[in-house]
Each structure stands twice: as structure tokens, then as C-alpha cells.
Amino acid sequence: MTRTPCTSISVSDTATWVAMYRAIESERPDALFHDPYARRLAGEQGEELLRRMPQARQYAGPMIVRTAAMDELIEELIEREGIDVVVNLAAGLDARPYRMQLPGNLQWVEADFPRMIEEKSKALAGETPHCQLERIGVDLADRAARRALFDRVGAMGTNGLAISEGLLVYLSSAHVTELAQDLAAQPTFRFWITDIASPLVLKMMKRTWSRQFAADSTSFQFAPKEGAAFFAPYGWHLERYRSVFLDLSRYHREPSMMWLWRLFFPRWARHEINKRMGPMTGTLLLSR
User: In percent, how much of the chain has pLDDT > 90?
Assistant: First the structure.
């Protein structure tokens, strides 16, 4: 995919940025997953973004383990719960319908801005997904359009899963509340896989990257101090929490200075710290 280089980064550009991370991971001999489409989808702009983003390669680990953790949860839910319809919100350049071994009768819907949908469809023309894939162009910030999307997807099955990878952090608490309510209002959606950041991590992200984003774009916002409990009033309860810090260690994808963390905190201590922190930064499996 080709895009005009720019001096600042829009939120849509983050899809290209993360696709480059998936491409780099896929080319490792010990790759956690293989995405043969990632480099094609990221294009030259993906390389340019990594060059311009401060410490971009150093922070690849959290995004890589997030993708790996979500892959595992998706596979588990399909096998355990018989998920028959999936909606991937702000799907960006994700290629799961092509790279994962999914049931052929599974209905998978990708929702994103119409321009993203159009560019992605062109880039993957001729490729065959492993499931029944449909792409829908929609502005997810438009609540009426979003509710119409959920009604449409909800009618495709009876046991649904929503995925929002790397989306919530760009939304306000009010918008996340509305999204949680709208998903819960559609009976088909029983599960929701998403990610969450703590206030401390959000502060670090802003300090490192916010200046790179376009002035008129949505910046990093959502990091509730109550963690996963934020979703409970809207009918979503925590079923599984995958800590990004523990997953970095589990998958051997720690940043270069992570050895200090391991040196001063043995494994049992890291688990205890994570337990006390609660579901604050990582991947969540919510159910209702």
C-alpha cells in the first residue's frame, strides 16, 4: 500500500505502524505468529514511520505480545464457545482472516473508515480468507452508524465476539462508555477482546509519542484508574486478563532494559506485583 509521506502522524497511520511490527515479528526465526501480508500492507510508509517514531523499535514488544495474546484468546473462544460471528472494530491492516486457521463457516466482519477498507481490499485482492469475510466502511465515532453496524453483524449469528485491538486508547472515557453500552445492547455479542493501558503507561506514551501525532488528530486518552472494572457497570465482566508485562517475559519479547526488571524482581515477585496492580495494562477478555 502506498500513501503520501507526511511530517506528522494521524491515528489511521498507526495501522501501518503496527503492521510493520507484525512484519518484523513474522520474519524472526522464533516468530510468535506469521503474517505474510503485513509488509505488503504496511508498504514503504511503514518503514518511514518506524524511522520517524522515537524509540519505535524498542517498543515493538508490547504490541507484538498483544497480537499474540489476542490470537490465542480468539482461537480458544472459537473452539470452546463455538463463536459464529466476529466483528473487528477499527480493523486497520489486520490480516487474521487470512493468516489464522479459522472455521470456513465463521462470519468475520472488519469495520473501519471507508478509505482504509478500500485500500486494504485493493492490497489483498486475489487473496482468499479462511472464513467468510466482509468489510464494512463506517465511522465508528458516529453512534447511529455504529449501532446500525452492530445490528447488521448481530443478525449474522447467535454467538458473537467483538475485537478492538489498539482502539480504546484513542477514545475518551465517554466514547468508550458508549461503545461498551452499544455492544452490550446487541444480544449476539457475548464476548469482547480488547486492550487497556494504565494511567502510568498512558503518561509514558504521551511523553514518548504524542508530539508525533497531527495536531487535529485524537491523541492518547483512555486509561481508567479502575482498570478492567471500568466495563462492569455496562454489563461486561472480566473473564481473563493477560498482563503485557508478564506476556513480554512469557514470550521472550522484553525491551532491551527489561533485564533490570528480571534482575531485581524474581519471577514470583513479578507475579505478585502484577496481582496487586490488577488488570491495568494488557489484554482483556470480557464476557456477559
Answer: 64
SS3 content of the chain, % helix, strand, coil (to 5): 50, 15, 35
Least confident window among 13-22, 97-106, 236-245: 13-22
The cell for 54 is 522515537
Q: What is the DSSP letter of 213?
A: B
Dihedral over Cα of 250, 255, 256, 260: its sign: negative
CB-based contacts of 142, cutoff 8 Å, min separation 6:
none
Cα Rg of the chain, angstroms: 18
Q: 264 versus 108: which is more confidently predicted?
A: 108
Residue with cell 506469521: 34
Cβ atoms of residues 35 and 22 within 8 Å: yes
Taking Cα atoms as reference points, which of 163, 147, 152, 151 lies closest to residue 77?
163
Model confidence, pTM = 0.88
Q: Output phi, psi for 195, to 5 deg.
A: -130, 160
Task: Check if CATH label 3.20.20.105 holds for domain 68-287.
Answer: no
Characterize 77-111 residue by residue with b for buried, 16 or more Cβ atoms within 10 angstroms of its Cβ, and e for exposed.
Answer: bbeeeebbbbbbbbbbbbbbbbbbebeeebbbbbb
pLDDT in tens, 82-107: 999 999 999 999 999 999 999 999 99
Q: Is the pLDDT of residue 56 over 90?
A: no
Cα distance between residue 101 and residue 78, in whole Å = 11
Alpha carbons within 13 A on the beta-carbon side of 66: 24
Q: Cell digits for 142?
A: 458516529
State the DSSP code for 87.
E
Q: How far is residue 258's CA from residue 137's CA, in Å, rounded to a whole number?
A: 40
